Amino acid sequence: MDKKTRTIFITGLLGGVAGSFLFLLLSANKFIIGTDSLRLSGQVLNLTTPIPVLTLAAGLWEKIAADQSLSIVGIQVFLNNRLVKEGSGIIISSDGLVLTTADMAISGAIYQMSYEDQIIKGSIKSVDYNLNLLLLRAPSDFSKVAEFNASQDYKSGQEVLVVGKIIDITKPVLVTKQGIISYVAGNKIVLDLVSNSYLSGAGVINANQRLIGISYLRSNKVQVIGAGTIDGFLRDYFSKTDNK
């Protein structure tokens, strides 16, 4: 290696070393890496301490569905020996009262309810087409009664679980759909959920395990009859029966 080449090589090497040293010096105030900590812009994060992660409780919706299943029945409506409608109903008294939607009301129809391993026939006790509510009476005792949360504040974005039952041959099968409240306009509560005929009369439950209403279908959308409306309907029914 001649003298000129050697001079260029040594100059480049010294320049690289100086540049590296300057970079480390400028960076030292930003990052200091050790075995158990990382300092970033003067703040130290201890790497030995696990970072908390917020997650939903495992199996929350499954638990809610299982808890509510005994207070829900499957309903089939027969007219002239033909199945014309089916949906779900909510048990509101241990002596046989079941609430569903007035969409299920048909004059002269036979109402067949499936509860656990029983098939029970029901009869209409009260109907309000304006509120879309139908009350049926079954000659049976139920082991669990639903409890509506009439004070629920409905807000767009709230997660809900729609829980109902369909009748498969002679046995009720639990069906669920998870969704959110899309929007609320007065008493109109619309869910962001794919509509299906079996959702009529199903219970709508929030993440606090509160029954906040029952679902029905309108214009291919799943909507909710709120617990406050249901409470008023039932109070009116019981006040009339108590005065008889």
Helix and strand element order:
HEEEHEEEEEEEEEEEEH
| Architecture per CATH nomenclature, i.e. the level-2 architecture of the largest domain | Beta Barrel
DSSP E strands, number? 15
Q: What low-confidence regions span 5 or more consecutive residues with pLDDT below 50?
A: 3-11, 16-56
Strand content: 35-45%
The pLDDT mean sits at 78
Oligomer: single chain
Biggest β-sheet: strands ordered side by side in the sheet? 4-5-6-9-8-7
Query: Compute the gyration radius: what is it?
Result: 32 Å
Structural class assignment: alpha+beta
User: Which CATH first-tier class of the largest domain would you pick?
Assistant: Mainly Beta
What is the CATH topology of the largest domain? Answer: Thrombin, subunit H
User: How many H/I helices?
Assistant: 3
